[in-house]
Amino acid sequence: MAFDGIVTKAICSELQQLVGARIDKIFEPNKNNILIGFYINNANYCLNIVLDAIDCRLHLTTQKKQNPKFAPNFCMVLRKYLIGMRIKNFITNDLERVVTIELEGFNDIDDIINYKLIIELMGKHCNIILLDEANIIIDCLRHITIGDESNSKTRNLLPHAKYQYPINSKLNFMDTSFNEFEKIINDNPDIDLSKLLANTFNGFSKSFIQNSIKYLKLKTDNNSWIKNLYDYFKLIINNTDNFKLTFKTIENEKSKKDYFLVPIDYEHKYNTNNSSDSNNTDNNCNVTPILNLNFFIADFYYQKESSENFKIYRDSILKLILQILKKYNTRLLHIDEKLKECSNMDTYKKYGELITANLYKIENKNLDYVEVEDYYNNCEKIKIPLNKKYLPSVNAKMYFKKYSKLKNTLNIVTIQKDETVKELSYIESIIYELENCTTLEEISEIYDEISENIIFKEKLASYDNNKNNSKIHLKKKPLSKNKEVKFNPNKYIIDGYTVLVRTKQ
To answer: Which of 80, 74, 25 is nearest to 47 (CA)?
Structure first.
């Protein structure tokens, strides 16, 4: 389910219980994430604001994130104005995905001051805007000017500009009567129902509508199905303010975890006969913790991000290793070709000996071939090809030279093949380990192992230098912060101790 207007309203309704909290920390881990820490009732909470185009959301979280060494400019602005302020209210307008956090505090001379933090969760148009008491923009995460194709052509989102609320032309479901709702559906029988309702009503996502229809087991051949769907939507929206909603998890058609809202009382009455459904998992409907919805969303997206990061990390390393595997397989093919060529070296030696032994019988002129007795095979006649550019004696020397070259080649490529087979076996074992990894820590251990192996040295160097290779950058930290150090010690792990050995330059 998308983080639509209904989920936004339900989440913010829970956050109302934390009104009065004092903001004491603000972080910006990345360009799409703001964390606001606050304190209330002897407890610390952290509000996670994610402005990713696909998974934009707002909820409390308990997961720690790595922060940059130097805070970005917008983070510093938020710290300047909001540290020490208290949360006065969380406001949502109908089912809009725009959240207003009203803040109150005191300035240096103890006068009461008010600010507003506007959080716009609108896909690729996500933004965070800090306003003063007159709704003038102090600063915003993403500056937008009129005419910028990346946003509305009617709004300026710049410091010192007057803030304008985003315009939405969709209908408000709570202002729509059943007859109007029924008419919208009946007048558009050829349009997919979830797409129709999502494009018509504000705050509805297609996944919410699809999951609701599936959950209610509605059949369109029943005359009352539209009324049941209308009443169910109304019940959901009416319960967003009174903590009578819970989430259910389900696997969607693509075998991915999904979630959707259901009323707690409705869940007990309607779905008691469906408790054994393996695809649906109830989320403790009998008990409603104070922040149940917030922490469900936090856990859901943490698991989703962990799974995605794991897949990206593993696939990027696996791709690199498969390239090396292909390289070594190609090398093995070339070695086999050389060995196949070396299998004829004894024939070249025999040709040279037979030509040399019969030189007194052979005309001393350029020939295409000679026919001599093969004393290796009962003196049967054998035809030996010659290079017409050269005399038979020169051809004999060329055959001996080719034999000698192939003999030396055989010794070398035999050793190369043994080494290549061992290296291929090692690479395949690494691939097997990667395919059976279950955690990021296991992949990191494999990465540390192969980074010390010369087989992967060249590829890892190019991988580390390419920051766009993966969402997870694996560049190893330097062993020393001293930029003047011009050596890198060798690293050995002996009996659990790390030993650094400096090699003489």
So the answer is: 25
Report how far residue 198's alpha carbon sits from residue 288's, in angstroms, rounded to the nearest whole number: 29
Q: What is the pLDDT of residue 463?
A: 62
Q: Which residues of the chain have pLDDT under 50?
A: 270-289, 467-485
Helix axis angle, 345-357 to 392-435, nearest 10°: 170
Alpha helical stretches, state H, 217-263: 225-238
* Whole-number Å distance between alpha carbons of 332 and 334: 5
The Cα–Cα gap between 450 and 460 comes to: 9
Check residue 217 and give left, alpha or beta (phi > 0: left; psi -120 to 50: alpha): left
3-state secondary structure 385-434: ECCCCCCHHHHHHHHHHHHHHHHHHHHHHHHHHHHHHHHHHHHHHHHHHH
> Could you tell me which residues come within 8 angstroms of residue 218 by beta carbon, excluding any fewer than 6 positions away?
225, 228, 229
3-state secondary structure (DSSP) of residue 146: coil
CA distance 289 to 366: 101
What is the predicted pLDDT for the residue at 98?
A: 93
- CA 298, 300, 304, 310 torsion: positive or negative? positive
Cα–Cα distance for residue pair 460/470, rounded to 1 Å: 13
User: What are the tokens at 21?
Assistant: 């909290």
